[in-house]
Every structure is written in C-alpha cells, then in structure tokens.
Amino acid sequence: MTQTDLIVVLPVLVLAGWALVLMLVDLFVPPGRKAITGWLTLVGPAGAALALTAWPAGGSLSAFHGMLTADGFAAFLHLIFLFSVVVAVLLALTYLPRAGLERGEFYVLLLLTASGMLLMAQAADLIVVFLALELLSIPLYVLAGLARPRLSSEESAMKYFLLGAFASGFFVYGVALTYGASGSTNLNAILAAAQSGLMANGQPAVPALLLAGAALILVGLGFKVAAVPFHMWTPDVYEGAPSVVTAFMAVGAKTGGFAALLRVFVTAFPGLAPQWAGLTAVLSALTMLVGNLAALRQGNIKRLLAYSSIAHAGYLLMALPAAGAPLTAQSDFAVGSALFYLMAYALTTLGAWAVVMAVERQAGQGLTLDDYAGLFARRPGLALAMALFMFSLTGLPPTAGFIAKFSLFRATVDAGYLWLAIVGVLTSLVSAYYYLRVVVLMFMRPGEAQALSRPSLNLAVGVTAAVTLLIGLIPGPFLELAQRSLLSLAR
Amino acid sequence: MQVIFSTLTLVTVFPLVGVVILLFLRPDQQPALRWTALATSLITFGLSLIMLGQFAAGDPGFQLVVRAPWFTVGNFAADFHLGVDGISVLLVLLTTFLVPIAIASTWEAVQERVKEFLICFLLLETGMVGVFLALDLLLFYVFWEFTLLPMLFLIGIWGGERRTYAAVKFFLYTFAGSIFMLVAIVWIGLTYGTFAVPDLLKAGLPAAVQTWLFLAFAIAFAIKVPVWPLHSWLPDAHVEAPTAGSVILAGVLLKLGTYGFLRFNLGLFPQAAVQFAPLFGVLAVIGILYGALVSYAQADAKKLVAYSSVSHLGFVMLGLFALNPLGLQGALLQMINHGLSTGALFLLVGFIYERRHTRLLAEFGGLWKVMPLYAALALVVFLSSAGLPGLNGFVGEFTILLGAWRGYAHWGFAAASALGVILAAVYLLWLFQKLFQGEVTNAKNAKLPDLSRREIALLVPILVLIVWIGVYPQPFFNLMAPAVDALAANLNAAALALR
C-alpha cells in the first residue's frame, strides 16, 4: 500500500476503524448510559472529515490500481454522509431511550453503514461498488430490525433484506455481463473498451452485452434509490423501521445509490448515453408521478415521507439523462446539480424526520397526520421548522429545495428534456398539496399535538432548518462548491 | 455597502428590520408589537417617498438601479437587481401606503397571535415591493412565490370559518399558475444567458418563441389578476381572509398579476401580445360583465366587493390589451384606483363586521340614521368605485374606454365595457340602499356606534387620494407617461412588424 492509497482510503478507514473500536468500548459502557457511546460515535465522522483534508484540493487521486478514487465528487458526498451521521447520532440520543431501544450496537452499525456509503462514493471499479453496496446495506438491514420484537420492525428488516438481496443479484449479474462485454470491471477500462471496441486483451468488445449489463446495474441501483418500478419495499420498510433508522436510510442509502449511479453511468457508459438517457428519463418521470400521486393518499407521516422520498428519487433521476448530454459542460452541470440536490434533500429530509421523532410517542403513537394538528400553538418553533422543510421539499423559495429544483430543471432543459422538466414542475404542484396538508394541520387546525423537547433534538432541527433557509437565501457558495465537485473522468 | 444602503434596497428590505425587532418582543407585549409594526411600515412608506423624490419623471428607463451578483455558477448567474420606472413607481407607493393602513386596521380586529400576524404582514410587504422592483427574472420569481407564504398563513390562521379551504385553494391556484412561468424563466436564462429584464428588453426575443413564453407567463398572471374564468379562488380567499388581509389582497396582490402582464407579457413578448390581444380583450369584457352581474346577486357584502374586483380588474385588462398609450395609462391608473377604492370598501365592510359579526345584507338597513358619518364616507367610496366623475374611478375607467375604443378591432369591446360601468353603479347603489337607506328594521342595529377616531383616521388618507386623483390626475399621469409611451411605441412597432 503506497502513501497515495492510504490518503485515498483514509476517511473510510477512520470511520470503519472507529466503529470497531466503539464496539469494544461499548462493552464497558453500562446499560442505561449508552448516551456515552452515542457521544463517542461523533469522533468517527470528525476524524473522517479531518482525513478528508489530506485529499488534494481540486485534483483527483487514484489508488489501489484504479479501484478507488479521491475526487471532488466523492469529497462532496462524504460531507453529506458525515453530516447525516452526526444528525442521526443527535437524534438517536433522544429517540433510542424513548423507544426503549437504547443499545450500543446502533451506533456501531451506523458507522459501518456510513463507511459503506463513503466507499460507494469513491468506488471506481464495479467490484468495489458491489462491496460498498453490501457494506452499506447489511448493517441497514440489521438496523431496520432494531425494534425487534415489534412485528412491523421485523417485517421491515425482512422485506428490506429480501428485496435488497434480490437487487444485489441484479447488480452482480450486470457486473458479470459488463465484464464479459468489456473484459474489465474498472470503470475507466470499461470506457476505453467501449470507445475503442477492443478489450484490454485485444479481443473485440461486445456492445449489446454491455448494454444489457448497464441495464441490470440500473435495476440493482434503482432498488437502492427507490425508483419506480423498484420502489415497492419503500413504504413498508420506512414505516416499520425505527424512525431514526428510517431517517438515515432515506438520506444515506439514497445518496449512496445515486453516487454509484452517477459515477458508473457517467464514467463508464457515456457512449451508451443515447440508449440509457431516454430510459432513465422515463424512469424519472414515472418515479415522480407514482411517488407524488401515492403520497396524496397517506394518513401516516412516515408513509407520506416514504412516498415523498420516492418522488425525490424521481427528481434526482432527472440528472441522469441530463448528465448523458453530449457536451462536457452540460454533463458536468447536471452532475453538480444532482450533488446540490442531494445536499438540499439530505438537510431537509433529516430535519423533517427530526420533527417526526419529536412528535412520535412510544409504541408507534403520534405518527398520523392528525397528531400534527395544533402543533403551532404548542411548539411554534418546531412547527415553523417543519413548515420550512415542507416548503423546501415542495421547492418553494426561499429555501434550499427551490434552488435545488431550479438548478436541476435547468440542467434538464439544457440537455433537451423540456418535457421531463414539465413533468417535474407538474408533479411538484401535486406534491404541494400533500406537503401543504401537513402545514395546514400544524397551523390552522385546533388540536392537542404534543412534541418532545430535548437539547440534542432541538439542535438537529435548528441546524437543519437554519441551513435550509441559508442555502435558499445565499445559494452562491454552496452551488459553486457542488459545481466544482467534479467526477474524475478519463476523457 | 452601496447596494444595501441604496433607496430601493431599503424600501424592499426595511420591513424585515421590523420583523427582527418583533421576533425579540414577547407575545404579550401587544402595544409594543403593534407600534413596532406600524412604525416599520410608516418608515417604509417614508422611504418610498424618498424614492419618489429621487425619481426623474421624464426618464422612460429604469432608475435608481441596484445590481449585485446574487449567485453565479458558470454561465448561470442571477443578480440582486432592482430598479424602478414609471410603471412600478406608483405601485410601490400604493403598497407602502396601504400596508400601514392595513396594520392599523387590525388594532382591535386581531387579538390572537398578534406577533405572528404582524410578522406575516411585514414579510408580505417585502415580498410585494420586491415583485414590483425586481429586474432579474429569477429574483422576481422568488419574490412572487414568496408572497404566497405569508398570505397562506394570514388567511389560514386568522381567517373566517372556511379559512383552511380558502387558504389552500388560494395557494394551489397561484402556485399552479406560476410553475409554468418558472419553466419559461429557466428556458429564457438558458437561451439568452441572462435573467436581467433590461438586457432582455434591449435584445428583444424572436417572434417564434414569444407565443409559448407569453402563454407560460400569462397563466401565472391571469390566475393572480384574476382573469375570468380563473377567478374562482378569489371570492373564497376574500371572504375568509381577515379584513387587513382582504385590503392587501385586493389592494396590492391582484396588482401583481396586472403588473406582470404589463412588465413581462407586453414588455418582453410584444408580438405575442398583439396576437393574443383580442382573446384577452374578450376575456376582459366577460370578466367585467360577469363580475358585475354576480356582484349584484350576492347576499354577503364582502362577497359582493370581492366579485366587484373581478369586474374592475376586467377593466384593467381591457386597458392593457388595448396596447395603446391611453389604454395602458388608464389601466395603470385604474390599478391604483382599484387599490384605493376596494381597499377602502373592505375596510368599511370590516368596520361593520366588527360591530355586528355578520356581513349579510339582510341584517342591515337604515344605518344612515344610526351611523351618519360612516354612511357619508361610505357613499364617497362607493361612488369612487362606481366611477362618478370628480372621483378617481372615473378618470381611470374613462381613459381605459377611450383607449379601448381605438385599440380594439371592434367598437363592441368598448361598448360592452361601458355597460359594465352602468352595472357597477347598479350593484354599488343597491348595496348602499340595502345598508343605509330605509328604516332601521333590525333592533340590533339601533345602537351601533358611529366611526371611532381611529377608523376615521384610516379612511381619510385614502379619501384624500380618491378626490385628488379624481380632480387633478395629471401628476400621476406625468409619472407614468414616459415609460408607458415607450412601451406602447414598442407594441406599435410589433404590430406593424406583424402586418
């Protein structure tokens, strides 16, 4: 292992290493005082963020014979993942004892799944993508079942595991076909084979097989990001899993999935863009339509947010056809817009789930929309923050969600998919209805809404709300950061 | 620093200073809250008068322009770009003039959650002024959408019985309209590399793309105006909104729509405007007559006033799409007139509602004897709204009719609209008769107190302007004429190019 290898893998190493140390330390933390483990967890993301500073500013590094890469794209996503870990820990400190789930494993598994996400963002080889996918998923399966013996939690874990394993199968099959078609699993080598028509060993590449491989990879990752028609598991899993796990899943797993989708398709398969751009555009439109329309009928906040997360997968998928645009500037802008959207989505979604956890009571109570009636009268600050998150998810100014949607629509229109942008705005209108319902209940209906108030919880809500508003008002620096976080491409 | 301390920035963001102060006050410090909000809005009005002082009436272009990068990424740049011209100057003044009156009108009417109410109001003021002053399409869109949020809460929290229905309907209608505008704005920004309105005006957009851009913008504005048949959110929103909300909704928010037509649809897409003028002329005439007839059928005073807005804004639309200087000037003046008269009408309805907690006409009658001062002031406002010569409504409507006579292909447009003037007199005098004339039939009305000094103080500034514009409108026309004439010349050139 060279020094470069070490620098590139260091953030993942720190996070995974700290998870193992924490597992050991947790043995000496007495039950009932697991908050100590929680606070200690934060060393992991802090250390990983510190390790990130060793990366070269601007350029990119390649390590382990091209298996891993360290570029702006990965660094930007790392910041999203690490921020999500910190927020998830803050929320868990309040949520776990209240739900009677105070166990040290939670924090260990959280760090492990997060290290899988980090690895995913850096993977430059399909084998590493697969490894990362499993490292990301398996701890999440366990986490979803954390509330055992609650049946819905067990169901959630089982469903997530079975469908996730199924999706992994698709993914591996896709990798195998791609290898058969191009003679390599390295993204740059696949690109080279596709462009030259020759594998590294001199045999002719097989374009049809490559297309089939790409399609199967799309299916596998489509499951992870909950794109229609691979979304069926989402509402049940989101509803059954403990809320703090769902929050992290909704942000981390989705962001991880998109990290892989963007990197694989833009790095390895740009030559096939005419084929997959149309396909992903249709998937995107379907996902927006199904997610938003189904969300209209939900009376449970967790299911509502689950369908909303499906809908947002649809918006994010808009970036793929846009990233398949022939011009480098257009493609780069689309990837940057997707990154910005992921950031806005992460902030807003974590915030919204934090409010859900504040309102949720023991034994799955406090999860219907009606439990939000009158929240403004009781807890004005919390209600305002939730309204802000709802407006941001709708895409209304002056919130981060507006700038994110605007930038993504711009990329889509620029790539010639005006119809897709129109589907996007029309479904945003549909989404306004159900997000508005939450606001109406909180502000305009009398009710006895109750909400928890704990420093760590309030901190999480306050920070996410403040940043959501800040990005909406002064988007410049954040947009620029996202647009500069380029993929390291071999073109 | 220059950007922050320029007149236009201050007029736009000063209400936010009040919001910050309000945030630090306790909810139970009611007088302090109210005085802070009122003082903020009065200072904002003062700032807008300074703007008027700095405004050079003879210059047709944008003045006092402030421009600073808001965010820039690659060729994707949006600016904080404000400017005022003859089209927006009066509308800004109307806004800053009506907001303190609306705030003062809540002194007794709003007792619950006063702090939040006032914060919403001041946020709304920033949004409205921002819409009139923004010269960057994206900034305009942000202000435009932002006005929805405080109004949503104003109707939804402090409104009447069906307030949530009305608030949601208001929000979804307006949001539905504006998303198409967003797509059009994205497209313009991509194609021309700028969101700056002055640059786009200078460059001119090719006729081929004007049609769909015109329609995308028109949907947003037509819903806001509202143009018949997109008006159905308006009666609900008005009836359920608290009085101060109605005053601002009718007085200013509806003008955001007509302003949008004037600035963007006529300014940026002149050829499409020429092509669509007959369509909008027909819709305007239908709106005038429909609004007037439906007003006459109302049993609720507030609903009557709400429908009368549909009719009056029909006049504004008629004047706009006459596309000649007379029509445009009349329309712009009529926007101001409608803001004053209808604002006052909603105040008057609010006064009586505070006393009796009903607005049903059947409950009233003979109030002239009980509340003579109220009746006298109401008569002036009614007549102003009906377009009596000597008061402001006449000047606006007459100018619009003159413009329409020449501007439309057929004299029927003007003739049918003139019928609207008569109908307005019918429903307003009918309203007056129901409220004030005859004997006091309802014992509950026998002991109603006449207007308080506070209530008189609210009406007097509006009445002064109503008479001023009615008797000597020239200064108002002088302010708008250069900008409007330039716009009309541009439209004329577009019409010639189409022939």
What are the main properties of this structure?
heterodimer, A: 491 residues, mainly alpha, 1% strand, globular, B: mainly alpha, two-stranded antiparallel sheet, 20 helices
Number of strands of chain A: 2
Strand order of the largest sheet of chain A: 1-2
**What is the C-alpha radius of gyration of chain B, as a whole number of Å?**
22 Å
Radius of gyration computed on alpha carbons of chain A: 21 Å
How does the major sheet of chain B shape up? 2 strands, antiparallel
Q: Note poorly predicted spans of chain B.
A: none
Number of strands of chain B: 2
The whole-number mean of residue pLDDT values of chain B reads 88
Strand content of chain B: under 5%
* Quaternary structure annotation: heterodimer
Give the chain pair forming the largest contact, with residue counts: A-B, 37 and 35 residues
Helical segment count of chain A: 21
Principal-axes geometry of chain B comes out as globular
Helix content of chain B: over 70%
Would you tell me the structural class of the helices and strands of chain A? mainly alpha
Structural class of chain B: mainly alpha
| Count of separate structural domains of chain A | 1
Element-by-element helix/strand order of chain A: HHHEEHHHHHHHHHHHHHHHHHH
What number is the mean pLDDT of chain A?
A: 90
The rough form of chain A would be described as: globular
Instruction: Note poorly predicted spans of chain A.
Output: none
Gist of the model:
The complex is a heterodimer of chains A (491) and B (499). Chain A contains 21 helices and 2 strands.
Secondary-structure topology with pairs:
The complex is a heterodimer of chains A (491) and B (499).
Chain A: H1 3-26, H2 35-41, H3 43-52, E1 61-63, E2 68-70, H4 72-99, H5 105-122, H6 126-144, H7 151-182, H8 187-196, H9 207-225, H10 233-240, H11 243-268, H12 273-295, H13 301-317, H14 319-323, H15 328-359, H16 375-378, H17 380-394, H18 400-414, H19 418-444, H20 455-473, H21 476-484
Antiparallel strand pairs in A: 1-2
Helix pairs in contact in A: 1-3, 1-5, 2-4, 3-4, 4-5, 4-11, 4-15, 4-20, 5-6, 5-11, 6-7, 6-11, 7-9, 7-10, 9-11, 10-11, 10-13, 11-13, 11-15, 12-13, 12-19, 13-15, 15-17, 15-18, 15-20, 15-21, 17-19, 17-20, 18-19, 18-20
Chain B: H1 7-23, H2 30-54, E1 63-73, E2 76-84, H3 89-109, H4 114-133, H5 137-146, H6 148-158, H7 163-192, H8 197-203, H9 207-224, H10 233-240, H11 243-268, H12 270-296, H13 301-320, H14 325-356, H15 367-370, H16 372-386, H17 392-407, H18 412-436, H19 453-471, H20 474-498
Antiparallel strand pairs in B: 1-2
